[in-house]
Design goal:
Number of strands: 22
Distance between the termini: 42 Å
Radius of gyration: 24 Å
CATH architecture of the largest domain: 4-Layer Sandwich
CATH superfamily of the largest domain: Ribonuclease Z/Hydroxyacylglutathione hydrolase-like
Bound molecules: MU-OXO-diiron
Number of helices: 12
Length: 387
Amino acid sequence: MNTTISDAIRYVGVDDKTIDLFESQYVVPEGVSYNSYLILDEKTALMDTVDARGVTGWEENVKAALSGKTPDYLVISHLEPDHAGSIGRLLEIYPDVTLVGNAKTFAMLPQFFDLSLEGRTLTVKEGDTLSLGKHTLQFFMAPMVHWPEVMVTYESSEKVLFSADGFGKFGALDSQEDWACEARRYYFNIVGKYGAPVQALLKKAASLSIETICPLHGPILKENLSYYIGLYDTWSSYRPEEKGVLVAYASIHGNTRKAAEKLADLLREKGVEKVVVSDLAREDMAEVIEDAFRYDRMVLAAASYDGGVFPCMQDFLHHLQSKTYQNRTVGILENGSWGPTAAKVMRGMLESMKNITILEPTVTIKSTLKEENMPDLKKLADAVANA
Ligand code: FEO
């Protein structure tokens, strides 16, 4: 991965390929990067630090890029420990550095660090600028993209936007995977709840001339920026990205799975081109959540369990509720060997979400899919295919 930005703006971040779960919940088979940047000018500015897991490599990168200089400023875009985790170490090495943040940054920072901030901070607000010499930083508040203190920084001479978590992606920088796949999984699982704040940030960004986006995770974006910004606009406005159906099933012994797969076959026979079938008990939940937002339709198929629904389906729907899943069309299939209860729970959770159309009929099977269930299954497949 090319991390060159310019002679004056250097990448000093690190990859983490050994973390088991990012934020203690997301598998990252290709690792993750903690990005940090250094701007060299009459004054030097570091743009964020890195997770404490990467402090040694980051310190080496910073020292090499500084070539004996001392940083004047540390701009803190975001206090979450995957970026702010090395602030303490920075102040040990360079005690005279000035921390640049907003009022919320400095209210929260002492919660994470036992540091004396007296005389060491520069508090900025919306639109404030900071001259480094040829480079000028301008600060824009981006509350709740992902935390309340988040701000982004625009450097006007080279037209660079330091976008905090925005436009971030799972995966170390040498990962060859497609940007959208892992950026989408990152977005919906980490920032997904905050569509309105992301929309507000996109409106601010639209007034800037941007040639490079430097996020805090994943690759530096230099070309075709309208593609990335367009996807962020789609995602943050909760519009489906493409037509397609996610069939998500929660099956105990495989019989609900067979019914879900039969429904998927019927959808394909009816000409639905994109049908994705996911096992909620075994697949990465974050990936299934990503697909729920990606497509315009979803079918939920679940076994009844303890008078409710099989837990992985409840967990999935709980995630969708918390990520404010909305504006989609959903079909329901339940299985129950005696008193089926799964559909009632799934319907109730879906009805708590905004602008969800639940298709009829709800299909109920008892233990296994039988010929007598096929008329209803076909009707549901028709409704999904034609929605
Ligand atoms: Fe990458 Fe919200 O921290």
